Amino acid sequence: MRMSCGTYRIPAVIAVCLAICAVFAARPATAHHSFAMYDRGKLITIEGVVKEFQWANPHVWIEVLVPNAKGAQDEWSVECTSVNFMTRHGFTRHTLKPGDKISITLTPLKDGSLGGSFKSVKSLNGAPLALESED
Amino acid sequence: MRFLRVIAVGTLAAFAAVAVNAAPQPGKPALTATYADATQPDISGLWVVTGAMFFSPDHALPKLKGQYKALYDKRTKAFNAGIAIDDPTADCLPAGLPHLFIVPYPFEIMQTPGRVTMLYEYDSAVRRVPLGVTAPASLDPDEAGYYGSSYGHWEGDTLVIDTINLRGGTQLDFSGLPHSDALRISERLHRKDATTLEDRITLTDPKAYEEPFTVTRLYRARPKWKIAEYVCEENNRNRTDAQGRTRSGASKAKQE
């Protein structure tokens, strides 16, 4: 996963990522429908491989294949905010692509389905994701 | 050709006149204007709401009456159980007013002679507010809409907007707060400082609320932002099911 890091050095990237996490944590990932379905206040992190990165409104979706205890793979559906929000936080339709190894922190669905509301993402391929704050 | 040149020069002169009139004055905030009417107090530019996604920033509630109280109690119970019901936005229907006041997407205020226009990113909604026109007591209910009809006038540096003829069925926020089709909205908008717009919003709804409900929302200037396209129908995985419940959209959803 190659990211243009701009002028940011690593500490700045970490700081920016923390800022992004804070921004996303402050608002539910959805602004198009109710956030009742999410177990707010709870955060979990999953690691896996991107199956699909759906860059479209009203919500961007990341489908992630996560190894399970049975030696198979579970498909998780992570609902992000809109293209508009994600763009203002430095994402593009090319930020993730199938095959990318990632770690995603999310607020899980209350009903136990494999999914949740996006909070932050880290690349496990080496290069940090270069994302800027909304200003 | 000469005629065209005269028009071109005239147009340039007109723009120059606006530019001169719109220049910042001592003690006044610089304009964020993309298009401002120099005869009006300047509230033009790009703004985005700050604070919580509940209609009232402190989650205060209107005093709900009868069936509207019962409806909200039912929605609250479902919400706490992790289920959203009756949410029209899940099906990509407009948020409408008053929900649009708190949707965390930017909107642009454009001021032209006799009119203020609000151009919203969310739903690509537009509000047209004619100035100096008093809101009628009522309008044809068959023409009630998601955004109603708005009428504005200036009181000093405050833009007062009355909005009537709103349809029922939209919600104030994602907690499912209802209103009826008798809702009237009164806004008092003014620029607190160079980067803050304040809207004091009063909802008067004798069918649904015991008394008028007032909240104050603040909007932050985002002069570097651009309004982007927002098409809800492109990839909506959250459509409501047959029971009116918002789907989670998970590929392996358990809720159906």
What does this protein look like?
The complex is a heterodimer of chains A (135) and B (256). With 135 residues, chain A is α+β, with helices and mostly antiparallel strands. Chain A is built from 2 helices and 5 strands, in the order H-E-E-E-H-E-E. Chain A has one domain (10-123): OB fold (Dihydrolipoamide Acetyltransferase, E2P), CATH 2.40.50.140. Chain A has helices at residues 10-26, 83-88, and strands at residues 44-54, 61-67, 73-79, 101-108, 115-123. Chain A has a 5-stranded mixed β-barrel. The longest helix of chain A has 17 residues, at 10-26. Chain A starts with 9 loop residues before the first helix and ends in a 12-residue tail after the last strand. Mean pLDDT of chain A is 78; it is low at 1-26. Chain B has a 9-stranded antiparallel beta sheet, with no helix packed on it. Chain B is globular and about 60 Å long. In chain B, 14% of the residues lie in helices and 25% in strands. Chain B has a domain at 45-222: Lipocalin, CATH 2.40.128.
Q: What value does the Rg of chain B take, in angstroms? A: 21 Å
The CATH superfamily of the domain at 45-222 in chain B appears as Calycin beta-barrel core domain
How many runs of DSSP E, i.e. beta strands of chain B? 9
What structural class do you assign from the helix and strand content of chain B?
A: alpha+beta
- Level-2 CATH architecture of chain A: Beta Barrel
Most strands sheet of chain B: 9 strands, antiparallel
Strand portion of chain A:
25-35%
Strands of the largest sheet of chain B, in order across it?
4-3-2-1-9-8-7-6-5
* Average pLDDT figure of chain A: 78
The CATH C-level name of chain A is Mainly Beta
Low-confidence runs of chain A:
1-26
Percent of sequence in beta strands of chain B = 25-35%
Range of helix content of chain B? 10-25%
**Gyration radius over CA of chain A:** 14 Å
